[in-house]
Amino acid sequence: MASFHFCLSHEDRASDTDIGACSSSTPINEKPYLSHRFWAEALSTAVYVRNRSPTKALQSMTPCEAWHGIKPNVKTLRIFGCRVYAHVPKVERRKLEPKARKCVLLGYGEQKKGHRLFDISSAKVIHSRDVVFNESSMPGN
User: How far is CA 54 from CA 26, 42, 46, in A?
Assistant: First the structure.
């Protein structure tokens, strides 16, 4: 069975964001909290990161910088599959209900700002801008 390696640790963000080239990467099919249905999300996130990484073909420019003319902000990049707490708006909760949902980071919004998240309790993919990341904790640990 083919395995898909993908990781983005703090060290990898600055230098090596290639798929399968991370020394600390784990195949996505070996992570119990990420099923095969998230492979498309992982690949989409890898492309997103790759387009914001410098390449030799563009004289150390990023593809995003060459296309849009501005340098992308890589400070917003996070570890794929990390635990995220998404804020629940006041109109969607009652007085004693939690103010945040436990989620898993799947990627970045393509059409609008924010993050694509997998809501663990409802088993749905949601989009949110108001999130808190816990990159040291992966669901299933």
Answer: 24, 20, 14
Report DSSP letters for 6-75, one per residue: ----HHHHHS---TT--TT--BGGG-TTS-GGGHHHHHHHHHHHHTTS-BGGGTTB-HHHHHHSS---GG
pTM (predicted TM-score): 0.70
pLDDT in tens, 8-30: 444 444 444 444 444 344 455 55
pLDDT at 28: 52
- Helix, strand, coil share (%) of the chain residues, nearest 5: 25, 25, 50
Domain boundaries, the chain: 10-134
Q: Identify which of 107, 118, 111 has the alpha carbon closest to the alpha carbon of residue 50.
A: 107
Q: 47-63, pLDDT tens digit by residue?
A: 888 888 888 888 878 88
Which residues have a Cβ under 8 Å from the Cβ of 44 and sit 6 or more positions away? 107, 110
